[in-house]
Specification:
With 117 residues, the chain is of the alpha+beta class. It has helices at 2-15, 45-52; strands at 20-26, 57-61, 64-79, 84-85, 91-102, 105-114. A hairpin with a 2-residue loop joins strand 2 (57-61) and strand 3.
């Protein structure tokens, strides 16, 4: 009986050592499949807004405007039943879509994903 009790207590404490993850998300997820519908010189700004929604940021560069879509996901390991957060071990994944518009049409776009290695 003592052995069983010891095993149960050990299992409870050891499961507290296995990390859980707290995940936070900022921005709207960028659907990479939808980027296939972007055609330079053809796709309009309105079509971009209809497909991807309002951008996080709009930057004016010379005679163009750049619509910036940004999505960030942060995963923080949590130990000891949520009592200890390991922020230094957090994994951050960022996706950025930049669409350059001139005279109402897409002239270029760029997608970048930065994730932990």
């Amino acid at each position: 009986m003592r052995k069983l009790l010891f095993i149960l207590i050990a299992a409870v404490f050891l499961s507290g050592c296995a990390p859980m993850h707290e995940v936070t998300r900022e921005g709207r997820q960028i659907d990479e499949e939808l980027m296939g519908s972007i055609k330079t010189g053809i796709t309009t700004k309105q079509e971009i807004l209809s497909t991807f929604g309002e951008p996080n940021e709009v930057v004016t560069v010379a005679a163009s405007e750049v619509l910036v879509y940004r999505y960030t996901e942060t995963s923080v390991p949590i130990y000891a039943f949520g009592l200890v957060e390991a922020r230094r071990s957090a994994e951050v994944t960022e996706k950025i879509l930049e669409v350059t518009i001139r005279e109402g049409k897409v002239v270029s776009y760029r997608f970048k994903e930065v994730s932990p290695e």
